[in-house]
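Page header: ASSEMBLY MODEL / two components / 314 residues total.
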Amino acid sequence: MKKNNYEYIKNEKLFKFADIFLIIILILVLSLTTVILFKKNDDGNKVKIMLEGKIYGTYDLACDNNIEVTKIDNNGKKRCLLKVIIHNKEVKVIESTCPDHLCEYGSIKYANSSIICLPNKVVVTIENSKDKGVLST
Amino acid sequence: MRSKKISLTAVFLALTLIVGIVEAKLPPILALIPYAKIGFSNIIILIAIILLGKIPALIMLIIKSIIIGIFTGNMMSILYSLSASTVSYIFMIIAISMSIFSFPVISAIAALINNFMQVAVASIVVSNMKIFYYFPLLALIGLLAGYIVGLIALYVLKKLPAKFYDYVFKNHPDQDN
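Prediction written out in full:
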């Protein structure tokens, strides 16, 4: 970049020839993978909760449940991080202690979809454990 | 850096912080992935790269990541945004100097790299690779958002009068470099 960028900006075009290839390739690849990933809405049957990379618990999706995810903090006290609600085969997170509360938007009901709470390091995933059994044998 | 540039960097930094904090408090645009954001605060960073230079923009980027993390109370976000924005910033500087792609497309690819880095850091933090399930959709939205941001930044930069560029770059006779 030169000292004064006024000339650079005045000559800069809104669109360049090389853009077309890059944008078309990227949009094709990304939308194809998105469609492939989200097309098959398999019904899951298990809800797996992971806390800091370890399995916190596995629950049945079919029966309604109200799970409190707790963690023992540095003072040895039990602290509730968030609540996971299983209702009508749908999973929802409420009352999270994280600052952004992004995990409380929406609910999940299909296999492989997940709710992620980054500040609390909690991942709630719906799984199809029958699939896993076939894979492992 | 001259004092004029330092004070202009501070003004631009204040602008990005206002836009960034307001955007962090707004509800997410998509309920399916609440992590997706347009990133309007990056318009001002992009303008700063061209108007003020590479180093002031990098300083703005680093301070912005830290202060937004503190102000929104989300300390973990500093980790994601610092690593992601630094990598996409380096890409942007290289791409601008190569000038093969147009400015909005460079911004779109930088947004894509930013998204990828954030998902990668997040998957390490929660040690769960399942997060990448949402990456293609997130990247698609990021691509579009980055393009919009780049387009707005280029439009603003083109509309700024030549006088303004001169003002930023010209040395004041009383000052030494």
